[in-house]
Amino acid sequence: MKEDFKYQVIKKLVETNGNKKAAAIRLGCSVRHVNRMVNGYRAKGKDFFVHGNKGRKPINCFSEETRRKIVDLYQTKYHGANFTHYSELLAAYEGISIAPSTINTILMAEHILSPKACRVTKMRVKMELLEKQKSPNLSTDDKLEIDRSIIAIEDAHPRRPRCAYFGEMIQMDASLHLWFGNTKSQLHIAIDDSTGSIVGGYFDEQETLKGYYNVLNQILVQYGIPYMLFTDRRTVFEYKQKKAPTTEDDTFTQFGYACKQLGIEIKTSSVPQAKGRVERLFQTLQSRLPLELELAGVTSLEQANEFLNHYIKEFNTKFALEINHTKSVFEKQPSVDKINLTLAVLADRKIDCGHCVKFNNKYYKLVDANNNPIYFRKGTDALVIKAFNDALYVSVGNKIYGLEELQVHETKSKNFDFVEDTPKKHKRYLPPMSHPWKQASFQAYLEKQAHRASKTC
Please, how many CA atoms are within 13 Å of residue 185, restricted to the half-sphere of its CB? Predict the structure, then answer.
C-alpha cells in the first residue's frame, strides 16, 4: 500500500505539473527525493516503485528442507518438548542453531502448539482448526490430525513473592508420571523457595517415606538443616486419623519425629496453589526430563537416580537464581552417623521365647558392642531401629543393642567340616545413650500425637 500511495502521488504530480513541496510533505521526504521519484516514474513507470527485494528470500532464511526436518523431528524424536527446550536439543544433538521464536513460527504454521502455550493462543488455534475442519475438501485423515492438534485449556497457578533467605522454606512434593520406560514412577523433589534451586530429588516406584527420607538426606548432606518444609497433606507428613496404624505404617509420626529432632518445622496445605513453586517445577520437568532420560538411555530406577544427580546441577545452573550464602539460614550439616540414625524406620516388637526379635520375616539375636549375645525374657518390649544406611539396632528400656541375623542353617558343621580360625570381629558401633531413638522418649512422643490420642479415648 505504501508503494501504491507513492506511485499515485508522483503520477498526479507529473500529470498536473503540481507543487513538489506539497508532494514532499505528503510523502514525508525531501524535494530532492521527489525529483528522484519523478525521474524514475518517467523512465520505468509503476515498476520503479516496487521494492527490489520483493519475492526474494532473505539470506538468513531456512531452506524448506530444514524447516521440514524441524517439524518432523519435533513430531517424532522430540515430541512434547517446549520450544525453548527443543531449541537447546536441536543445537546439542542435531547441529541446528535456531531461536525459539523461529521454531514457534515454523511449528505454528503447522498448527503445532507448545505445551506451554497460553490460553489465548490455544483458543485462537482451536478456532482456526475448527474453521478448517468445516472445509468440504478436507480428507478424513486431515480432520483426525486437526482433532489431535486441539489442546485442552489448562488453568494457570497464581504467583506469590519468594522467601527472603536461602533455606527459609523448602517445598517438597512427588509427581507420578511416565518419566522413563513403560511404567510410571514417582519423582520426589525439593526446591528452595528463595532461589528456585532444586536441593534434592529421588525416583521411586511409589510416594513413600523412603523417597522423602532420601530427599531430606540430600538436603542435610549438601546444605544443612533448613528452617521449614512446606508439603501437601500426605500421610507421610500429616493425617487426622488412620485405622489402627502400626508404628511401621505410621510414617507421619516417624518423619515428624525425625524433623523434630533436627529442629525442622513442617507446614502442610491441601491447596496446590499454596506451594506453586514446586507445582510449577513439575510442569517444567515433565516437559524436559522424560526426553533427557530417553536420550540418555535410562531404563531403571537406579540409572534414573544416577542421571538425576548431574541433571539437577545443570538445571540449577540454567534456571535457578544465584545462591547468596551470606543470606542462608541453613544450620550446620549434621554428622553422617547422626543423619543415618535420625532418618530411621521404627517397628514395635516383643522378645520371643528364643530370646530373638522377628523383623522382615527374619530372626535376629541381640548383641552388645563386643558382639556378645544378650538375652531378655519372653514378651519384653523392644523397638527395632532400621537406620537410613540399613543398619539394624534395637532399643530395650533405655539401652540400644545391635542385631545379628540368625541363619536358618549353620554354614558349616562342627562335626563334619574343618573349621578354620575365624577372624576376630571388630567392636560393633552402637549409638550413644543421648541419641533420640530410645524407647521411652519415642513412646512419650507417640502419646502426644492427636491422631493416636483420639483412638485411645
Answer: 24
Among the listed residues 323, 303, 296, 342, the one whose alpha carbon sits nearest the alpha carbon of residue 438: 342
The H-or-E segment that residue 174 falls in is strand 170-177
Taking the C-alpha atoms of residue 180 and residue 188, their distance in angstroms, rounded to an integer, is 15
Domain boundaries, the chain: 2-49, 64-149, 170-334, 344-456
pLDDT digits (tens, 9 = 90+) for 87-145: 888 888 888 888 888 888 888 888 787 877 778 887 887 777 777 666 666 566 655 55
Q: How far is CA 350 from the centre of its chain?
A: 42
Q: Is the pLDDT of residue 150 over 60?
A: no
Q: What is the C-alpha separation between 383 and 357, in angstroms, rounded?
A: 10
Average pLDDT, the chain: 81
Give Cα separations from 139 to 63, 129, 309 (angstroms). 28, 14, 49
Q: Which pLDDT value is given to residue 198?
A: 94
DSSP helix/strand/coil, 150: coil
Reply yes or no on whether the pLDDT at 311 is more than 80.
Answer: yes
- Amino acid 367 reads V
Beta strands in 334-430 (DSSP E): 345-350, 356-359, 362-367, 373-374, 381-386, 392-396, 399-405
55-97 pLDDT tens trace: 677 666 778 888 888 888 888 888 878 888 888 888 888 888 8
b/e for 209-235, b at 16 or more Cβ within 10 A? bbbbbbbbbbbbeebbbbbbbbbbebb
The CATH code of domain 170-334 reads 3.30.420.10
Cβ-based neighbour number of residue 79 at 10 Å: 12
Q: DSSP class of residue 409?
A: S
Which residues, including other chains, have CB under 8 Å from residue 135's CB and lie 6 or more apart?
none
pTM as predicted: 0.64
Query: Using H for helix, E for strand and C for coil, what is the string for 30-97?
Result: CHHHHHHHHHHHHHHHHHHHCCCCCCCCCCCCCCHHHHHHHHHHHHCCCCCCCHHHHHHHHHHHHCCC
